[in-house]
Amino acid sequence: MERPLVGILMGSDSDLPVMRECAAVLEEFGIPYEMTISSAHRTPERTKEFVEEAEEKGTRVFIAGAGLAAHLAGFVAAHTVLPVIGVPLEAGPLKGMDSLLSTVQMPPGVPVATVAIGKAGAKNAAVLAAEILATEDATLREKLKEYRRRQAEKVTEKAEALKKG
Ligand code: RP5
């Protein structure tokens, strides 16, 4: 089996529909990943073990998505010096503002690269992970450039379609 370069964690199966978007982007780039459900609060030991084992297997970046008092990304960051990307998810009455602040406000010395709330953030977490891996992978850098080109093309096509009416 190909060694997973990215480890995706989420706090609950209720986070899965959004975090699947993250996995889909990694698949687009052909980046092997491993995905699990593990919580900072409900299964702290399991989360710690997942991080340690992933690191031993050769994982290079972690992505952690959680809602409410979203401490998962910070908890992962506390157990590794590999880069950790946090995805704040919308899971309650505060619509993700709670998870955004819980994820982004890390104390100095233990960073979490925090992306946008929800689906956009989940996708960007994968793109950012790809960019981190691409610092040492020229083929992946080309794939990222192509991804940007395709995005630009889509915008242009939509503008053309609008002009035509
Ligand atoms: C967080 O609590 C999870 O990441 C999820 O976003 C939220 C709600 O979890 P469930 O009650 O749906 O399991 O820990």
Helix and strand arrangement:
Layout: E1 6-10, H1 16-28, E2 33-37, H2 44-57, E3 61-67, H3 72-78, E4 84-89, H4 97-104, E5 113-114, H5 119-134, H6 138-164
Parallel strand pairs: 1-2, 1-3, 3-4, 4-5
Helix pairs in contact: 1-5, 5-6
Residues 11-12, 14-15, 39, 66-68, 89, 91 line the site of 5-O-phosphono-beta-D-ribofuranose (RP5).
Give a structural overview.
The protein has 6 helices and 5 strands, in the order E-H-E-H-E-H-E-H-E-H-H. By secondary structure, it is of the alpha/beta class. 38% of the residues are buried. It has helices at 16-28, 44-57, 72-78, 97-104, 119-134, 138-164, and strands at residues 6-10, 33-37, 61-67, 84-89, 113-114. Helices cover 52% and strands 15% of the residues. Helix 1 runs parallel beside helix 5. The protein is globular, with a radius of gyration of 17 Å. The site of 5-O-phosphono-beta-D-ribofuranose has 10 residues, from strand 3.
Distinct ligand kinds: 5-O-phosphono-beta-D-ribofuranose
Structural class: alpha/beta
Strand order of the largest sheet: 2-1-3-4-5
Oligomer: single chain
Q: Mind describing the biggest β-sheet?
A: 5 strands, parallel
